[in-house]
Amino acid sequence: MSTNETIRDTIEQAATTVGSVWPLHSFVTANPLSGLEDRPFHEAVQQAERLFGGHGYPSADVFRAALDTGQIDPETLRSELRAHGYEEDPSTLLARMETQAESATEDDESSQHDVVDTVLTKWLASFLDEGHASWPMPNRERGFYAAFRSAARYDRSLPDPGAVATYPDDPTEAIEQVVSTYPRDRLVDLFEFHFSRLPGWTGFIKQRASSGGDWQAKYPITLTGYLAVRLVLTDLFDAPLAPPDSVAESMRSERDLQHDDEVPLPELWLNAWETTYRTELVEAIADQNQSTVASGDSEPAVALEDGGRPDAQLVFCIDTRSEVIRRHIENAGAYETYGYAGFFGIPMRYEAYDSGVAVDACPPILDAQHYVSDHPVEGCDHEHGRYDTWANTTRTAAHVLKSLTSNAATVFSFVESTGVGYGAALTARTLFPARVYDLLTNASERVPSPADFCAPALDHDSNADGNLPHGLSTAEKVEYAATAFELMGWDEFARIVAFVGHASQTANNPFESSLDCGACAGNAGGPNARVLAAICNDDEVKAALRDRGFDIPSDTVFVAGEHNTTTDEVTLFTAPVPESHEADLEQLRSDLETARAGAATERTESMDVPSPGTREAERRAADWAETRPEWGLAGNAGFVVGPRSLTRGLNLDGRSFLHSYDWRDDESGEALAAIVTGPMVVTQWINMQYYFSTVDNAVYGSGSKITHNPVGNVGVYQGNGGDLMTGLPLQSVMAADDDPYHQPLRLSVVIHAPVERVTTVLAENPRVTELLDNGWLSLTVVDPTQNGTSFEYDENLTWVAAETDDRRDAAEKPEPTAEPVAPLSADD
Length: 828
What we know:
It is built from 30 helices and 19 strands. By secondary structure, the protein is of the alpha/beta class.
C-alpha cells in the first residue's frame, strides 16, 4: 500500500469517532456519538469525554430532582443498585457523585492549539460559506487546501505567511511531510485528536463530503484537505503535533464511579429512571391490549355505526408532536389516525416551484432515489400569474435593499431616509407580535401558494438530465403506495384519506429547521405528503393496488396536508378534490380547527404561560424575540410500534413516537423489518441528540440562542468564532439554566408483535442488534400470541419476561414461554 493510501485510510478510520453535522437550513437531529455506537454506551461516553470533554450523564442534582418528583421509582432504583453491588442509601451515592464532580479538574491552561483553532476556523468559515458573504473567498473551486495556500500568504496572523508556499501542492503529501517523524502505529490517535479539536467543523465537512450537493460540487472540501490545512498551521505556529501526556491525564474520568462490572454509577441511576418510565408505558399498552382482545376490537378502534365508514382517515408523521394533535382530532369526530414516517416512504430529491434549490426530502440514512419538482397545472393560469408577479416584486425589492445596505456610498443615506419606517416595523414586531402574525397571515392568504396551482411532476422522464431519475415509473408508484398500506396494516378506506406532513413556523430562529420534519432531513413534510396523495389518486395505481388486495373504493379521494407544529394549524392542499367531497372537506376543516384549539392549549400550558391557547401559539410563531417558539420533540422517550387501538385514548403527553403496524398483516415480517431498520434507527438518533444536548449543552448542544452568531448560512458560533455548535439550543431542552424540561432518557421501544418474529428481524439486522446490545436504546415486545405477555430484550438475541405492575391481576398474567427466550436459528 502506498504512503498516500495509508494516510487516506488512516484519516477515514480516525474520522469515524466524529458524528456528522448538517447545515442549519436542513438541520438533522443525529446522535453526536454515532461514531462510537459500536461500543457499550458507558464506554462511548467515557471515550467522548476524553475526546470532546463532554459529560455523558445527568448530574446528581438532576437525578435527585427526578427521584423527589417520582420520575424515578425508589424501589426500582434500589433494585438496580443492589444488582450491581451498591448497598448504600441513594442519598449517600448522590453525595458521592457530587464529590466526584467537584474534585474533577479541567485543564485551564491555554493550549498552544487554541491559536491554530482560531486561525483555522476563520478560513473554514470563509471557504464553506453558502451564499451569505458579500465578498466570497477566491479560488474555492480548487478545493479547500489549494484555496487556503493561494490566500494564506496574505494572512498577517500567521507567523510566516510566505512559508505556506513551501508545503507540497498535494494535501496528502503535505500531511505526510508534517507527520513524517511521528510513529506510524499512532497516526490514528494523532488524526483523531486533531479531528476532535473542532468536532463541529469536522462533522460538517464529513457530512458535506459524503453527501455531495451543489455547494460541494462547486467548492469541494475533503477531510484530507481539512487535515492538511490544520497540520500546516500546527507546523507554522510550532504547536505540538500531539497533545502532551499531561493533557490526556487531566481529562475528566468517571472511573471512580465504576464498580466491579465497570458500569458507572450514574448509568445505574439512568437505568432506574428509564425503567420507571418504560414500566408505566408498557403497562398502559399491555392493559389496553387486554381490553382490545376482550372486546374483540381491531385496529383502528373508532365508534362507527354498523357498516359505516369513518368521517376521514388521517396519516401523520410518527413525530411525538403528532401524538398530541391525533388525540384531539379523534375526540372531534369519528376519525381514524395513523402514524407513518413523515417522508411517507418516498426517498426523493425535491425542488419546489420557483425555488431553484433541490433538497433531499428523506431520512439521512437513505439516499434519494428520485428527482421530483413542482410544475404548474393547466387551468390555474390566474393563480400562477398572481404568484409570479408577487414573487418577482419581492425578489427585486430584496435585491435593491441588499445593494443599498451593503454599499458604502448609499448605506447612510438609505438609513436616514427609511429609519423611521424601519423603526416602526421593529417596534410592531417587538411589542405586538400577535398582530404582526395576523397581518402576515392575511397578506399570505391574498397571494396564491404554489400548492394551489402546482402539482408534483411524477411521470417518469427518461430524457431528463441529472444524477437521479426524474419522476417515478408506474411500478415504483404502486410499490410505494402498497408499502405504506402494508406498514400501517391498512385495508379499509374512508371517503377522505389525508396524508399530513409537518413543518414549523418561527421568526428569527437559526435552528428553525430542527423543528421541521426529521424524516425529511430537516425540511417540511408537505411535499412528500402531496407526492404520496398524487400517487394514490392515480387510477392506474389504484387498479394495481386492488390487484394486490387493497380494495380502494371508487369514492375514496386522497388529499395532502401540512401540520404547523408551532400553531397546530393543519392546512389541507385540496386542489384535486371533486365537488362531491366538498361537504366532507368542510366538516374535516371545521373539526381540525376544534382539534387545533385543544392541542395548542395543551402545548402552551406545558410552557407555563399566563394565557395558553391558540393565540399564544400564534404570538410565539411571529415573535422574533421568542427564544422558545415551541418545545419541538423535547420530552421524547418512547417509540410504540403497533395498532392505534393500543394507544387510542391514552394521553402519552407528546413523549412517544407512534408508528402504525398490524402484525396480522405481516406474516413475512418484512414490514416490521422496514420499521426496525428505518424509523426506529432515526428516532434513536433524534432521542440521542436531545439526550446529549440536555446533559451537556455547552459541548453537545449549542448553548443559549441569545448569544448565537450565524456563520456562512451553515451553522452558529457562540460569540465571534470557534467551533460550529453541533446540537440543540439551551432553550429547546431546558426550562431554566439548571432545570431540564427534557428528561434525558434513552429511547424505550415497544413493539406489538410475536416475540419470535422480532427476534428473526433482529437476527437479520446485526447493526440494530448492536445498538440494543450496547445499550443505546431498549426494546420491549408485547406479544399478542401470548395473551399480551411483555418481554424485554436482554442481550445476544435473548429475552426475559418483563416485570409487571403489582396492581395488575395476577390471574390474567400467562406464564411466559421461556425465560429467557432463546434466539431462533436460521432453520426456524
